[in-house]
Amino acid sequence: MAGGVSLSKGGNVSLTKEAPNLTAVTVGLGWQARSTTGADFDLDASALMIGANGRVLSDEHFVFFNNLKSPDGTVEHMGDELVGGAAGAEQDEEEVKVDLARMAPEVQKVIFPVSIYDADARHQNFGQVTGAYIRIINQADGRELARYDLTEDASTETAMVFGELYRYGGEWKFRAIGQGYASGLRGIALDYGVNV
Fold this sequence. Notes:
This protein is mainly β. The chain has one domain (5-191): sav2460 like domains (Lipoxygenase-1). It has three helices and 13 strands, in the order ββαβββββββαββββα. The strands form two sheets. Strands 2, 4, 5, 6, 9, 12 and 13 form a seven-stranded antiparallel β-sheet that branches. A six-stranded mixed β-sheet has the order 1-11-10-3-8-7, with no helix packed on it. The N and C termini lie far apart (42 Å).
């Protein structure tokens, strides 16, 4: 099955044009950790549901390992342990399901950060991570609509926004971001108005 649109940093694609009847997507995130410190890498994906003011709608709209589902159920983190897909299918480390059709109109975008758990104590950062990617899969048929492979070396950052889904003129689009944060997931959450 052909892959979707491959994006470089800053690029975007209309998911609605790629899949005209699109109602729901699965956001797959993956990476490989180089074990340099001896400690295990524990990378965690999360999702922030952002309103027109650029801030989360509420603390409950920050979906992560301690809050796996948004209040309306339209964004659901599938948890740390993923069961393998079809033979030969790419194994995402973490997946977040997003119901675009039921998404409240006040949600303007959904941002997907990935953070290294306990990074400071374990002396770990994204410079020790390779092969990181984010991909958008149409839930209806399993087709990959878009993909962004993060290539740049974010040497000291402990968290990174991989990409975002956003509304644009009645369409849902995906943008490749790849912005690192030295302040970790806490810094990203604070930037978007989460009380952490």
